[in-house]
C-alpha cells in the first residue's frame, strides 16, 4: 500500500511549499496535466499557472510534463509553459519517468512527481524512487475508468486521512 501513497498531499499545485522541497533536495518536477494543473477540458494554462511555472524556473527547478494523454493535448500545453513534455507516458511504468529525470539531468531522488491519481502518478513516482505530491483533483468531470479507480483510491487513502501539507 505504501507505494500508492504520496509523500505529500496538497489541494493545488499553488499550495506546494517550494522552499521546503528545495530544502529536501528536490531539484525538479514531473507534472501530470489533466485534473492536476487544469481540468480535462482546459486546453491552455492561464496567466496564474504560467506565472507559477516562471517562479519555479527562477527558483532553479527544472520542470517536465508527463501525461498518459495524447500528443495533441500535451504538446500544446507544454509549449505554452516552455517546458519539456512526454505524451502517452504509460504511467505508472517507471521507464519513461526515469528517462525524463535523465533528460532533466537530475536523479529520481531529486525529482518530485506531482499528480492527482494514486494508480498512475503516485505509484509510478514511488516505484521510480521519487518524492510524490498528490494534488486534489480539480474537477469531478473525468472518464468512467478514472471514476471507477477513484473508488479504490478512497479505500487506500480516505479523504479524512488527507491532511494538507503533511507528509502522509
Ligand atoms: Mg491526472
What does this structure look like?
The protein has 168 residues and is an alpha/beta fold. It has a single domain (2-161), classed as HAD superfamily/HAD-like (Rossmann fold). It has six helices and six strands. The protein has helices at 18-23, 47-58, 71-81, 95-104, 118-127, 144-156, and strands at residues 8-10, 28-31, 62-66, 84-86, 111-115, 131-135. It has a six-stranded parallel β-sheet with strand order 1-6-5-2-3-4, sandwiched between helices. It is globular, with a radius of gyration of 14 Å. 35% of the residues are buried. It binds magnesium ion. Magnesium ion (MG) binds next to loops.
Write the layout of secondary structure elements.
Layout: E1 8-10, H1 18-23, E2 28-31, H2 47-58, E3 62-66, H3 71-81, E4 84-86, H4 95-104, E5 111-115, H5 118-127, E6 131-135, H6 144-156
Parallel strand pairs: 1-6, 2-3, 2-5, 3-4, 5-6
